[in-house]
Write a sequence for this structure.
């Protein structure tokens, strides 16, 4: 069996990622003047700021974040304890081998 059509090995390039989101944009920016590119950067920054402000002021998201924080507290301490214990064991092993 042959390889899938259009499949490449390795991670996607930045070009590929943006092309998936907006194919027209990718074609456009390669031919735009520097002035146009600067205008696009400004417009994108404004869009990003608008979206971030909307997200930060979304009461549903804030409520869900609070719920998630509460739910995660059950696991946070035990997970941190496991992580610290593993680090200590690895440190002791390295010390015994003279790696530290």
């Amino acid at each position: 069996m042959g390889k899938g059509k259009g499949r490449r090995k390795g991670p996607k390039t930045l070009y590929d990622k943006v092309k998936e989101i907006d194919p027209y944009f990718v074609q456009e920016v390669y031919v735009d003047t520097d002035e146009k590119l600067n205008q696009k950067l400004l417009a994108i920054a404004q869009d990003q700021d608008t979206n971030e402000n909307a997200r930060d002021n979304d009461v549903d998201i804030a409520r869900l974040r609070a719920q998630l924080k509460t739910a995660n507290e059950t696991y946070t301490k035990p997970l941190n304890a496991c992580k610290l214990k593993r680090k200590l064991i690895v440190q002791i092993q390295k010390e015994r081998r003279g790696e530290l």
